[in-house]
UniProtKB/TrEMBL annotation:
GO cellular component: membrane
Keyword Membrane: yes
Transmembrane segments annotated in the record for this chain: 7-25, 45-65, 77-95, 158-177
Keyword set includes Kinase: yes
Gene3D superfamilies listed in its UniProt record: Histidine kinase-like ATPase, C-terminal domain
Keywords: Kinase, Membrane, Transferase, Transmembrane, Transmembrane helix
Gene Ontology molecular function, alphabetical: phosphorelay sensor kinase activity
Ranges of residues in domain Signal transduction histidine kinase internal region: 188-265
Name under which the protein is recorded: Sensor histidine kinase
């Protein structure tokens, strides 16, 4: 999936904020001061340490986690994390030691460069510490009990490193689980569609078969209408979403085919109102409710009436279908309606309301679904 510009812009902003974070607490007291990499040890150390930690975050996320951790090599992954941590601690000492830091171009007293310092308990140590300008004091000289101990930023480096490693692992695992869930839902939807498509075909062929048995002159028209229905199913049924006007046109053709087949044996009260422009919907998500009414509400030996109302208001479509419950001449498991209800729960979990009123005489459904 292609990433848009906003994705990269967001990451650039986050990286800038991460690199800028240490300078909110610089010795200058201003968060607007640019880092002084040549003379300010705090700026120099934290800029390069944070920059390396930032590179490690992306290296860990895009390389180590997918190629090692997700390949069931957790022990190897932990060992690599430990090695990287030791590397960051080692590189911290390089940046923290002025006489060995290739980025520090200042002149230092000969005794500091050679390590010829008096012991901390000697009076000369305090005199040397007080006499040196602030910029020439080695980092940690005034903050450590013993000169030459571990740099003061060690604990901070470890903390930021662990936060980066854990957060990148957490994000990667979360995205992986989401992808697994999405793939599972797509598989379920594909299975449901595979059941729905032949379901429509068989029921519609049964409708035309009944015309052919009676040698009805409308049989040829019914075949043409069926071809339109099948063209829609073949070209659009596998799409995630389609233009709403195509789905409405499919419903119109289906109702017309049923009227052709049933003739005067049924009253179909069908109305549609609203604007479909700019609206989209999942294909074949409405037709099952309408087909169910024709399947269970029609019998040539009884008075039958089906009411279908489709209305679009702003971003929502309302479908109302009702039919008399009679002794239907058709019988099957109702797999189309069951699958549609499952698809609604998967695709429109928070964007639809379905109400079913099933009484002894009537069967009614009222569906409100977001299409905008």
């Amino acid at each position: 999936m292609k990433k848009n510009i906003s994705f990269y812009a967001m990451h650039c902003c986050l990286c800038f904020m991460f690199l800028f974070l240490p300078y909110a607490f610089t010795s200058t007291g201003s968060i607007f001061t640019l880092p002084d990499l040549a003379d300010n040890p705090h700026d120099r150390i934290y800029f390069f340490i944070y920059f390396l930690l930032l590179l490690f975050f992306y290296f860990n996320y895009y390389i180590l986690i997918p190629k090692i951790y997700f390949k069931e090599k957790q022990l190897q992954y932990i060992a690599i994390l430990v090695l990287f941590l030791l590397f960051f601690l080692w590189i911290s000492t390089i940046f923290d030691t002025p006489d060995r830091n290739f980025l520090d171009f200042r002149q230092h007293p000969h005794q500091i460069l050679n390590g010829n310092l008096p012991p901390p308990e000697h009076e000369g140590f305090k005199h040397l510490n007080d006499s040196l300008p602030h910029k020439m004091k080695p980092p940690g000289l005034s903050s450590l009990t013993h000169f030459g101990g571990p740099p003061t930023q060690f604990s901070h480096t470890i903390l930021v490193y662990l936060i980066g490693a854990i957060s990148s692992l957490f994000i990667a695992i979360k995205i992986r689980l989401q992808k697994v869930e999405d793939d599972k839902m797509k598989s379920e939807l594909s299975f449901l569609k595979a059941q729905i498509n032949p379901h429509f075909l068989f029921n519609t062929l049964n409708s035309i078969y009944s015309l052919a048995i009676r040698k009805d002159d409308k049989t040829a028209d019914a075949v043409v209408q069926l071809s339109e229905l099948m063209r829609y199913i073949i070209t659009n049924a596998n799409e995630d979403v389609i233009a709403l006007d195509k789905e409405i046109n499919y419903i119109n053709n289906y109702i017309l085919l049923q009227k052709t087949r049933l003739g005067n044996t049924i009253i179909v009260d069908y109305t549609f109102e609203g604007d479909t422009f700019g609206k989209a919907i999942t294909p074949l998500i409405l037709i099952s409710f309408i087909e169910n009414a024709f399947k269970h509400g029609v019998n040539p030996n009884e008075d039958s009436k089906i009411c279908i109302r489709i209305r679009i208001v702003e971003d929502y479509l309302t479908l109302f279908v009702s039919n008399n419950k009679i002794q239907s001449i058709q019988s099957d498991s109702g797999i189309g309606l069951q699958n549609t209800i499952e698809r609604l729960s998967l695709l429109y979990s928070n964007n639809h309301v379905l109400t079913i009123d099933d009484t002894q005489e009537m069967y009614k459904i009222n569906l409100k679904i977001k299409v905008g």
